[in-house]
Design brief:
mainly alpha
């Protein structure tokens, strides 16, 4: 009896995952501004075949999910976890130093105030260079 209960729980979990993936597929399509017909064209499918895929009326397989991902320039895992994005920790391990720059337009007086906050009284020397 316990095994049957566990199997039912697993089945429910899988069905919930499939429902979430189907929702993700629709959300991604809509976010990209595609109609079902437009997405079908991107995947080289008929509109009716795509509609059956998106609604879950046909069996969802990895091949079709991968086709959808590629048509949207996404990885398969990103379709499954949408809107979250998967980041491979091994890729991050190779990054030693991440740099970011920001450009802000300031009036001359604002620029002077920011430089004074950052560099103190030496700011005027920096402005004159």
């Amino acid at each position: 009896m316990q095994i049957v209960c566990q199997l039912i729980q697993i089945q429910d979990l899988l069905l919930n995952m499939i429902e979430q993936i189907l929702k993700n597929i629709e959300l991604i399509r809509v976010a990209r501004g595609f109609s079902q017909e437009g997405m079908a064209a991107e995947m080289n499918k008929t509109q009716s075949a795509y509609a059956r895929f998106e609604s879950g009326k046909t069996k969802i397989d990895l091949k079709t999910l991968d086709e959808f991902a590629k048509a949207n320039n996404m990885s398969l895992i990103d379709v499954i976890t949408y809107p979250k994005k998967y980041v491979d920790s091994e890729e991050l391990a190779h990054i030693d130093n991440i740099e970011t720059s920001i450009q802000i337009k300031l009036s001359p007086s604002q620029k002077e105030q920011v430089l004074k906050m950052l560099f103190g009284e030496k700011a005027s020397q920096l402005l004159n260079k």
